[in-house]
Design goal:
The chain is mainly α and 342 residues long. The chain has one domain. It contains twelve helices and no strands. The chain has helices spanning 2-18, 22-29, 32-109, 112-136, 140-173, 175-193, 200-217, 239-245, 252-259, 266-270, 293-312, 317-341.
Length: 342
Amino acid sequence: MDVLQKAFDEAVLLVSQEAKSEEELEKIAQSIPSKMDEAISRLPEDMLSSIKEMASEGLKERRQLHSEFVNRNVKRWQKAFDLMELHVAVSTEAGQLFNQRLRPEAAAKNDILFDVLVRLHAKGCLISQNICCLLKNGFADGAHARWRALHEINVTSMFLSRNGCEAAERYVYHEFVESYKAARQHREYQPRLNEQGPSDEEFEQLKAEYNQVIERYGREFKKPYGWATPFLDTGASNFFTLEKAVGLDHWRPYYKWASNNVHANVKSIRQCLGLSEAKEDILLVGPSNSGMTDPAHSMAISLSQLTITLLLHELNLDGLVTMKLLLSLTDEIGEAFLECDK
């Protein structure tokens, strides 16, 4: 209403300034609607310029407040956060050393399973660092959503490890299916996206690669998890069947819980880890120092499993020691977060 009133006042002011007689005033008054449109069209730009002029001090204050929050949050969860970050560092270094030790031999043998397991582990370490960052900054629900991705990587890695190079090869070649589907979708919505999609030549290349892998692996390969079908007891190939195949289907309730932070169902707007200690119904729009335990401990468990899966691919004494160290750290992390939670 304030914006409309300002536009109206501005339009009236323009009319009164331009009028030199009562007749002219009446004539020009008829142009108020168009002048209001003109004034309103300028308002967003004027308001944005004004906001930008005042933003520097406001943003500085907001950043200072967040920095102070992070310090308080870290102080509360210090012991647990330290163990969590140590766990990620040990896992990352274990993967790095494993890759350095075995990469030359694996490259010489074109060991596709080795390459896929290493890449999945690297991605898992990156996601774990995302989780650490989100927790330290007070976003437990965001961290829980990222754990969901880590769980998917862990399940996929375990499934491929158990089913060998043939499964890894199918997993890699399934990229052609995903790329062709994405390109087809982009071309369909290109006008509304206002962004150039693949050229005709690029699209035909993607289509040819897609047809090749479908011809090679069969029509079932078109499905999202079609690459896994031959290694499953059931005809259905989806993420749940992969979970079941590697014995991690008991994580399904936690996976569904974490999915609330990804999807727009009603639970996503009514339940929030960041409000787990709230005494009243409030709307959380910023960081909170509550709800860290479940995302952090889930992350530690999944990253331990992911790292152990990698190390078991070519186990040596150092790997065995690292595995035991990670399992011990995982237990400590759970206990430390529960202690800080209290």
